[in-house]
């Protein structure tokens, strides 16, 4: 439903007249999961699904927002105490506040928005929303904020107004995305490069369990704390160079095993291994070696399931189905606790795999998984 006409129609109905229209996408991530708050690498790409918003200054000091998909309105001021009640409006409010904290001068505006990124599917609908407004307000109020800071504004919104201590991957991909390219981002130095991604003979497809387990954000924050505890302990025990887990080796982790909890150890082990897998995948992609890419995807799934414990029964089931069917690579994508698997499938296997996965998933869970073909697309932009 990322549809210009729809947004124009509802904006007109609610606010009369026309504003400017902006859009930002969700993302996929080939490999490098839960590495972005550990100073490590990620491999995301923006997708052809996202959020679209029409927006126009209204000459007041209030924001009037309409969420088309929910048929809900919100009105709020721009001061810290003006937090709106609706969860979706907190994202827009948070972006405004983070811009203001950085010295950006804002005034009231009217806005209507809609999206076609499935909510809770691990494709980053929230980053798409944040990036849409960060990009739009920067443009509309001529704030001159650079793209890195726009991504950080979205991330700080999550930290300070949503309560998820996320890394930078999702907002970065949504702002910096480029059609046909994955982004290899080093989250420690913030250096990045665009990696052409056109795996001849393969398809990248998402299977959405349509399951979202509760408490995902507190479980996410807890994992981040475990990683920080492990990195700090390694640092404090004779390894001053270790700032993030990305800098640590398994040997260094093993040396402090009795100083941290079993849980923190498992989390840290996963991150250190995942960091190595991202290096392996970078190299494999340069050579067009998709068998290695796929192998590491399966290993990531295994690590996310057993060590990081962010998978769930439904995701493990889809992963097993992929394996059974000879799919090249498959794993849970994004934060976990439900959502999608990302699958690298040989073209000739595609139809039979999708058919089988749908059938067996439905037999077990009573509903089919949703299927999304991945189209790697451009990042945040002004539509008109
Ligand atoms: C979520 C977060 F928002 C990202 O920053 C990232 O940590 C991801 O989970 C896991 O890789 O999408």
From TrEMBL:
Residues annotated as domain GHMP kinase N-terminal: 91-178
Alphabetical UniProt keywords: ATP-binding, Carbohydrate metabolism, Cytoplasm, Galactose metabolism, Kinase, Magnesium, Metal-binding, Nucleotide-binding, Transferase
Domain GHMP kinase C-terminal, first and last residues per copy: 283-357
One Gene Ontology term from the biological process aspect of the record: galactose metabolic process
EC number of this enzyme: 2.7.1.6
Domain of life per record: Bacteria
Domain Galactokinase N-terminal as annotated: residue spans: 10-57
Any Gene Ontology CC annotation: cytosol
Signal peptide stretch: none
One family name in Pfam for this protein: GHMP_kinases_C
Protein name: Galactokinase
